[in-house]
């Protein structure tokens, strides 16, 4: 059984390496195969942050996403491992009376757009197709590095989405929509292509929990802001800016993250225990049946921290030893 398993893994590794090779992005090397064979430990964290809304009055969705972006950066994920997709640019919208800024609080203490925001997909680049291609790695050969999710089977990926949605769909730019089956299938493809170890999927939109109801790929933990039939609600309305500046569910998640840093021992269970329906105004949902670990033992830093404990070995990897036997 173990032999067959190893053989399958090796074949998969060779296949994927071949795939990478044929698209010109990598060469088949012993190192690459070793990488695909060693699956137990996780060596990197990635974040995909997606705001699917256009137009000024959806300011809060951009603020949600930029706040999340700041948080994952603060907790240690470098920009090279964050894919930021923003469908609209409210910072430079003529209606913005604070040009080139985005705030998530009426006190306006932190300009979310301030320094070092690297948007990877912007404006009309934020499409369902580009999102699915990004996840599944089916990008064209001339796609720049910052538009690729260069993960492997040791990567934990945090996927955050916000915008306008409904039962089993999320609108992209008011012109198209992604449905819950699209994302579920994309994740299964990611799993088959060994593109992740674990995924934390978080979505803030109306009827958000329906968006992960169709998932079936393993090792996915999902959290949504509202049940089927429920809206998701905005939080602060800013009278100067003239629109709401953040959504409640995202706001209370961020509030918890404020108390967390890279050395934190807070777990996913701690985060979820803070959800308070009377503050969020909708019913957050958590789906754990696809996730192998207990939430009490899943640290926030497993997804958000910088992972630096990488094991290096001096001796060459014994390729032939435990392969086909
Ligand atoms: C990660 O690797 C270390 C050292 O090889 C090992 O002791 C540990 O059990 C591994 N972790 C997991 C989750 O498999
Ligand atoms: C939830 O929020 C309400 C309103 O602020 C508060 O009265 C209540 O104590 C909170 N519940 C919990 C469990 O913290």
TrEMBL record:
Q: Pathway, per Swiss-Prot/TrEMBL?
A: Glycolipid biosynthesis; glycosylphosphatidylinositol-anchor biosynthesis
Which residues, if any, are the signal sequence? 1-26
Organism, by scientific name, is: Coemansia brasiliensis
Active site (catalytic residues):
164, 206 (nucleophile)
Q: Keywords for this entry? A: GPI-anchor biosynthesis, Signal
Instruction: Please tell me one Gene Ontology term that the record gives under cellular component.
Output: GPI-anchor transamidase complex
Q: Which GO molecular function entries does the Swiss-Prot or TrEMBL record give?
A: GPI-anchor transamidase activity
Which Gene Ontology biological process is one annotated for this entry? attachment of GPI anchor to protein
Kindly provide the name given to this protein in its UniProt entry: Glycosylphosphatidylinositol anchor biosynthesis
Matching InterPro entries, A to Z? GPI_transamidase (IPR028361), Peptidase_C13 (IPR001096)
Entry similarity comment: Belongs to the peptidase C13 family.
């Amino acid at each position: 059984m173990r032999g067959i398993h190893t053989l399958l893994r090796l074949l998969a590794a060779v296949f994927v390496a071949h795939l990478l090779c044929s698209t010109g992005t990598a060469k088949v090397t012993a190192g690459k195969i070793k990488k695909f064979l060693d699956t137990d430990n996780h060596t990197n964290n990635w974040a995909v942050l997606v705001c699917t809304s256009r137009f000024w009055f959806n300011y809060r969705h951009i603020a949600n996403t930029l706040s999340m972006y700041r948080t994952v950066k603060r907790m240690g994920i470098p920009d090279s491992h964050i894919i930021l997709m923003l469908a609209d640019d409210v910072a430079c919208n003529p209606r913005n009376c604070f040009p080139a800024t985005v705030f998530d609080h009426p006190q306006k203490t932190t300009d979310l757009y301030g320094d070092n925001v690297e948007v990877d997909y912007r404006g009309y680049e934020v499409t369902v197709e580009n999102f699915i291609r990004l996840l599944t790695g089916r990008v064209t050969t001339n796609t720049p590095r910052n538009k690729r999710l260069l993960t492997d089977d040791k990567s934990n990926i945090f996927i955050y989405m916000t915008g306008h949605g409904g039962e089993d769909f999320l609108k992209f730019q008011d012109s198209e929509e992604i449905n819950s089956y699209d994302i579920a299938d994309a994740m299964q493809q990611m799993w088959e292509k060994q593109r992740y170890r674990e995924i934390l999927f978080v979505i803030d939109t109306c009827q958000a929990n329906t968006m992960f109801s169709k998932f079936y790929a393993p090792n996915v933990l999902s959290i949504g802001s509202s049940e089927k039939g429920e809206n998701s609600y905005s939080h602060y309305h800013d009278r100067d800016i003239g629109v709401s500046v953040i959504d409640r569910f995202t706001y209370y998640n961020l509030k918890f993250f404020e108390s967390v840093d890279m050395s934190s021992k807070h777990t996913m269970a701690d985060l979820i225990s803070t959800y308070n329906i009377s503050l969020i105004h909708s019913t957050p949902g958590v789906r754990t049946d696809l996730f192998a670990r207990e939430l009490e033992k899943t640290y926030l830093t497993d997804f958000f921290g910088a992972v630096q404990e990488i094991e290096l070995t001096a001796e060459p990897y014994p390729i032939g030893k435990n392969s086909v036997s």
